[in-house]
């Protein structure tokens, strides 16, 4: 077997390098169903399917989904897979059965009547589909599944028993092509047509592969393999004795799976053969839609070759690995400084190794080259762990400074700044003389602009000012207090500073203008190298490469890791020229053309599941109308881009809820409680290379609640109107009733006031008063008559005046009572005395009460209490005091008492009935109905211990107004 290995001539035979491919390896721990992969296929949607010894596996680039007997498979060991044009994935278990996966369900003989009619006589070897969609199945016999559902078994050719079947395929136009017992047949519409004979010694199916344009076969007994085209063109290939199977990859590539690796034969290119996974038993291979190569192995899992455009070159000297620390463009080559005191040369356009390596020191062992600079186009300045030297165009040393440990170099015109283990100093690059010492201590990097020098150390970044002063930039910026690994300026004057633990800092005009770390997309905060190319800042970390577009808002980042073909994620150095990317790593040099990788990148987007109210439903049967009580929706989806290795973001919006686009990296969207309405979900996937998928949409309607339906709203409206009308009618009725009651009360009050006015002056009192006036006239007592008439007229005038007012002052009420009592005293010939006592805390002029409330009680005291006393010691006392929020008025007499008064009334009846007390009680009742604060009244009979009446006391409490 010819090993696909670049070998180069170097200065000494001990200098070697080897080119290898980068793989992404998947095992059971990553979710793969089993470590033995028998077969693989990519379906129409782009999903990868793998048949393993322990189940069927579907892969979307991010997640594995495994299927076993519990999911409906007849057997867990899957030996053959085939994807047809309808989206079905046909599955052949080791058990003699056929099934397929379609729209989230495994169809097997247990649940599908068509599959139940297929009876393979052995395990299935191959599937084929013609243009009409008919499926041909190869085992020992042929089984045809037509699109109509008809199943037929083909066991004869031209009425002869079916010979040994080598392989089958579909024709380009219609029907199938069958190679059986070294004879090629066309099979169309149930008939075989002999095509030609193919003289192969071996007949076993593993030695054959065929499609509509190409037939591939080899013979174990012959020394060469043969590839036959339909035009009978034949190509000789190197013989492999450990052959497992062939795989026709495309028109120009044929793969061969062997127990010691895989070979891909290029039938049209210059590189006829390339070998992969040497030493591993490769059982199957496939090229996906993005150009990735997949290899299934026996017992070692699954491998993905990310790209044929990524080359990993391991550098060695005397079998000692050469780690790369620095990269520099020199003419048409890229120089790689390594740890074995050698500069390796690579073509800047192709990345291929070139002859003529450059030794730093002519001794064996290590002397790492940490920094290289090109001085005046043709001279080189190199710094290693033991020497700083300058070389001419012929790579011969012109000058050197020994015993230096150089960590970084910077040219500023003819001034060379050197960062070393214990110093930073300045050298005149022309004379090679040290002109100034700038820093004492360990330094990691250095950059100079004009007369300002930035010095990176283990403890942060320092700035030497033009006047010689030193400033610690980490004093105000925490990120600049850690180890500084690299400093790169851009055209806008921003210094991009790489740190060993805090990401990347953008520094300009004495302040931090940008910070790039894991929180905004950097793969790691450990930045090991920086390179600026145009508007892109390339950052090498311990977790791969980050390409940062510093000219766009948000500074989007594209990442490259081992999953893209890098030999390792640890990056020591970077050099980028347009699309050509050189990466220095502990494993050597990685080279790739970024544009070729991006051009092949592809991104598809599919719904994988839709859950409505906790129940899963097929994606294509999403109901247009969803009941409101089941409106908890979850959309599961996946963006398929195998080159992105799961680095996919999604933009989405749900029209009807929000019009703004949002981004997520989750592969599901959940809407637990959507309001009623019409919705349109728009979803798009964007892979790591900014390639957008098609716009995926899903429209649905959340059914309205009962109270949101039009008929229900109309009904509620009618009920509301009816209820409102009824309520208004009830309120109006109530208002009217209250108005009527109020009118009645007002009328009653008016009547009572009228009655009160009429009843205030007792007719008997008026009659007696007039008699008294007459007696004064008869006695010719003009003065007494005038005085009595004056008081009587005043009392009548006050009665008429007060009866028209709702309230009068206590002062007016007491004045009225005094006038009344004085007249009664005169009329009864001084048969009693009276007095008024007012508490000192009560100002009669400031307190108001309803008019003529006290008069009936005073009248009763005179008429019924004092009138019948046999002596003239009667007394009426009116007392006023303040108790809390009430004004308490007490009318007390020392008359004969109410019981004796009733007896006198029965003996000497009068011709009229006094209604003063009942009218006053009604007035108080009416007042209390209209006011929250009430008037209270209490009448007490005053008696001695032996029951002898001592008088009467009336207590009336008015709220303070």
UniProtKB/TrEMBL annotation:
Every Two component regulator three Y domain range: 641-688
GO CC terms: membrane
GO molecular function, a single term: phosphorelay sensor kinase activity
SUPFAM superfamilies: ATPase domain of HSP90 chaperone/DNA topoisomerase II/histidine kinase, Calcium-dependent phosphotriesterase, Quinoprotein alcohol dehydrogenase-like
Pfam families given in the database record: His_kinase (PF06580), Reg_prop (PF07494), Y_Y_Y (PF07495)
Superkingdom of source: Bacteria
Protein's UniProt keywords contain tRNA-binding: no
Cited InterPro entries: Bact_2-comp_sensor_kinase, HATPase_C_sf, Ig-like_fold, Quinoprotein_ADH-like_sf, Reg_prop, Sig_transdc_His_kin_internal, WD40/YVTN_repeat-like_dom_sf, Y_Y_Y
Transmembrane parts of this sequence: 711-732
KW Transmembrane (keyword) present: yes
Keywords: Membrane, Transmembrane, Transmembrane helix
Residue ranges constituting the Signal transduction histidine kinase internal region domain according to the UniProt record: 758-831
This protein's name: Signal transduction histidine kinase internal region domain-containing protein
């Amino acid at each position: 077997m010819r090993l696909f290995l670049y070998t180069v001539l170097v200065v000494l035979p001990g200098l070697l390098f080897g080119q290898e491919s980068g793989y992404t390896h998947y095992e059971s721990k990553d979710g793969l169903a089993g470590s033995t992969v028998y077969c693989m296929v990519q379906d129409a949607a782009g999903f990868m399917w793998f048949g393993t010894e322990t189940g069927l596996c579907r892969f979307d680039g991010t997640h594995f989904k495994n299927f076993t007997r519990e999911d409906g498979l007849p057997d867990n060991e899957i030996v053959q897979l085939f994807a047809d044009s309808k989206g079905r994935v046909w599955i052949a278990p080791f058990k003699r059965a056929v099934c397929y996966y379609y729209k989230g369900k495994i169809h097997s003989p247990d649940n599908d009547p068509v599959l139940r009619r297929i009876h393979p006589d052995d395990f299935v070897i191959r599937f084929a589909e013609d243009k009409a969609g008919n499926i041909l199945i190869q085992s020992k016999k042929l089984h045809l599944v037509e699109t109509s559902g008809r199943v037929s078994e083909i066991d004869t050719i031209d009425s002869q028993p079916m010979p040994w079947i080598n392989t089958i395929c579909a024709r380009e136009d219609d029907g199938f092509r069958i190679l059986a017992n070294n004879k090629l047949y066309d099979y169309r519409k149930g008939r075989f047509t002999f095509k030609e004979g193919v003289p192969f010694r071996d007949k076993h199916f593993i030695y054959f592969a065929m499609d509509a344009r190409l037939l591939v076969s080899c013979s174990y007994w012959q020394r060469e393999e043969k590839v036959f085209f339909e035009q009978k063109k034949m190509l000789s290939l190197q013989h492999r004795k450990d052959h497992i199977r062939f795989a026709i990859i495309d028109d120009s590539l044929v793969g061969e799976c062997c127990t010691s690796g895989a070979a891909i034969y290029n039938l049209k290119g210059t590189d006829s053969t390339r070998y992969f996974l040497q030493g591993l038993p490769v059982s199957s291979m496939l090229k996906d839609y993005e150009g990735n190569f997949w290899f299934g192995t026996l017992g070692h899992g699954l491998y993905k070759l990310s790209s044929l455009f990524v080359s990993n070159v391991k550098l060695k000297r005397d079998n000692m690995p050469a780690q790369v620390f620095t990269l520099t463009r020199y003419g048409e080559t890229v120089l790689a400084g390594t740890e074995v005191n050698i500069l390796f040369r690579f073509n800047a356009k192709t990345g291929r190794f070139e002859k003529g390596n450059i030794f730093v020191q002519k001794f064996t062992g290590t002397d790492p080259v940490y920094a290289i600079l090109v001085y005046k186009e043709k001279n080189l300045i190199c710094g290693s762990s033991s020497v700083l030297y300058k070389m001419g165009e012929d790579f011969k040393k012109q000058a050197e400074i020994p015993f230096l440990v150089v960590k970084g170099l910077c040219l500023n015109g003819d001034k060379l700044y050197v960062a070393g283990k214990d110093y930073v100093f300045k050298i005149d690059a022309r004379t090679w003389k040290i002109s100034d010492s700038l820093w004492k201590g360990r330094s990691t990097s250095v950059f100079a602009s004009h007369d300002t020098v930035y010095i990176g150390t283990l403890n942060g970044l320092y700035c030497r000012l033009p006047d010689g002063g030193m400033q610690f930039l980490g004093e105000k910026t925490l990120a600049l207090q850690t180890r500084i690994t690299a400093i790169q300026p851009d055209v806008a004057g921003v210094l991009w500073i790489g740190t060993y633990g805090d990401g990347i800092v953008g520094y300009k005009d004495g302040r931090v203008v940008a910070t790039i770390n894991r929180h905004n997309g950097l793969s790691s905060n450990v930045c090991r190298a920086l390179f600026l190319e145009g508007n892109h800042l390339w950052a090498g970390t311990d977790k791969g490469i980050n390409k940062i577009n510093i000219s766009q808002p948000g500074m989007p980042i594209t990442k490259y890791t081992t999953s893209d073909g890098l030999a390792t994620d640890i990056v020591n150095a970077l050099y980028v020229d347009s699309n050509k990317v050189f990466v220095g790593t502990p494993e050597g040099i990685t080279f790739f053309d970024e544009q070729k990788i991006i051009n092949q990148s592809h991104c598809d987007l599919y719904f994988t599941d839709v859950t409505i109210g906790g129940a899963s439903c097929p994606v294509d049967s999403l109901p247009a109308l969803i009941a409101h009580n089941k409106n908890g929706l979850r959309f599961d989806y996946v963006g398929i881009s195998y080159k992105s290795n799961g680095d996919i973001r999604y933009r989405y919006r749900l029209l009807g809820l929000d019009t703004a686009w949002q981004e997520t990296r989750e592969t599901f969207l959940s809407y637990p409680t959507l309001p009623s309405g019409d919705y349109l979900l728009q979803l798009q996937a964007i892979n790591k290379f900014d390639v957008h998928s098609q716009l995926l949409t899903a429209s649905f309607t959340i059914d309205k609640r009962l109270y949101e339906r039009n008929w229900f709203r109309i009904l509620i409206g009618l009920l509301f109107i009816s209820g409102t009308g009824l309520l208004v009618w009830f309120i109006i009725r109530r208002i009217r009733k209250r108005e009527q009651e109020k009118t009645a009360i007002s009328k009653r009050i008016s009547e009572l006031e009228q009655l009160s006015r009429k009843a205030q002056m007792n007719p008997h009192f008026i009659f007696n008063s007039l008699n008294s006036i007459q007696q004064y006239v008869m006695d010719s007592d003009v003065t007494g008559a005038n005085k009595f008439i004056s008081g009587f007229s005043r009392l009548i005038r006050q009665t008429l005046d007060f009866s028209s007012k709702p309230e009068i002052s206590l002062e007016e009420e007491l004045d009225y009572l005094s006038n009344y009592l004085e007249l009664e005293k005169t009329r009864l010939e001084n048969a009693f005395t009276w007095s008024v006592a007012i508490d000192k805390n009560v100002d009669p002029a400031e307190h108001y009460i309803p008019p003529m409330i006290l008069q009936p009680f005073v009248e009763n005291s005179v008429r019924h209490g004092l009138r019948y006393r046999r002596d003239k010691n009667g007394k009426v006392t009116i007392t006023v005091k303040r108790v809390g929020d009430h004004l308490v008025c007490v009318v007390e007499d020392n008359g004969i008492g109410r019981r004796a008064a009733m007896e006198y009334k029965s003996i000497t009846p009068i011709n009229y009935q006094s209604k003063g007390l009942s009218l006053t009680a009604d007035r108080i009742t009416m007042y209390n109905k209209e006011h929250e604060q009430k008037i209270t009244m209490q009448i007490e009979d005053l008696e001695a211990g032996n029951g002898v009446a001592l008088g009467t006391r009336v207590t009336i409490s008015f709220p303070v107004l």
